[in-house]
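Practice problem: predict the structure.
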Amino acid sequence: MMNVNLEKHIDLLVKRYPALEDIRRSIEAAYECMERSFMGGGKLLIAGNGGSAADCEHIAGELMKGFKLRRELSPKEKDALCSVDPELGALLSEKLQGALPCISLVNHPALNTAFLNDVDGLFCFAQQVYGYTRKGDVFLGISTSGNSKNILYAAAAAKAKGATTIAFTGKSGGKLAELCELSVKLPENETYMIQEYCLPVYHCWCLMLEDKFFGGIS
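Answer:
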């Protein structure tokens, strides 16, 4: 059973967006998958196109630094920094924050354009996934249609490398929902309407992950 201090975030989400009640369990399952991965030292890889690419960057920004919490480093982490250089370590200890490792695959222009030019642009994300992914990682593919070819290729590569794959799509789910182990199908069919649900759902995930790993919730 989910900790009540984490579940409160989903309670608030469905209170504000009642249509999400029907997919509550899939939202919870996706969160639990990410939690297990981070607990085991894994990372989250995300890919999407257009507005979904912007969502990838947004998610990475919330996970790699403080969202609502300060995420101050532990005394052990501060000591490790100061052991390298006392002056630099003191400043790093003050400025750095706890992070959950998350890679947005959309923001590597030199690599992606090189692969597009030299090989095939539809496989840019799959190439990155193949290079980054280790068993226990999570791949989150964002596609409103569920049929974006470059996201499908990336998801297939992630599964082959031992990652758990999550489809984050519109109501139909498309091929991506069939391919992935988990799917979160937002309850709309029109692209912009799907995207309007996308942000509050991933904000909920980010809030829950921050509370779990930096808020003292066991």
